[in-house]
Amino acid sequence: MKESIGNAFVLGIFITFAFLTMLILMYSINYSRASKIKNSLVNYVQTYAESNPNIDFSENEEFTSNVNTLLSDVGYRINNNLNQFSTSCKDLNDGSSLITLHSYYDYCIYKYETSRGPFYRIVTYMYFDIPIIGNTLKFPISGETRTIYSLTDK
User: Fold this and answer.
1) d(CA 109, CA 96)
2) What is the spatial distance between Cα 106 and Cα 87, in angstroms, rounded to a whole number?
3) 119: part of which helix (H) or strand (E)?
């Protein structure tokens, strides 16, 4: 009887350790994917804004289609509701203006105007699907471009 209680205890510790290892591995994979997507978007927005300093991103179809192609190539997740507007983007009330793009993907681009020039904050999301509950957890990951200096205005 003594050995069966000991074996059950060791089995419980092993299952707990395996579950925690799986959670850490799942978190690191999802975080690295979301960071890769965020970094790709930051680099693309930065290079596009530097080459076209006075462009309105929300009205530019070329920019929107290139971003959608970039996100589909990387393997970013499509919105669950499949409408053409991202529902997670909210006004931040910190002096930024939200750039709304027509996309099936869930990301946000905010423009900040400073005295030196504008910079952009890009927010992507890290997803966790919970199969037993049938719910999805979504955590934001954000990054910023450097300040875009306009040399034509000087």
Assistant:
1) 10
2) 8
3) strand 118-130
Under a CB-based contact definition with an 8 Å cutoff, are residues 41 and 124 in contact? yes
What's at 25, amino acid-wise?
L
Each residue's pLDDT expressed in tens, for the chain with a length of 154 residues: 566 677 888 889 999 999 999 989 988 988 888 888 889 889 988 888 888 777 777 777 888 888 888 888 877 777 766 555 556 777 777 878 888 676 778 888 888 888 888 888 988 888 887 777 767 788 889 899 888 876 655 4
Which tokens in the block code for residue 4? 């069966």
Residue 15, H or E segment: helix 2-51
- What's the full length of the chain, in residues? 154
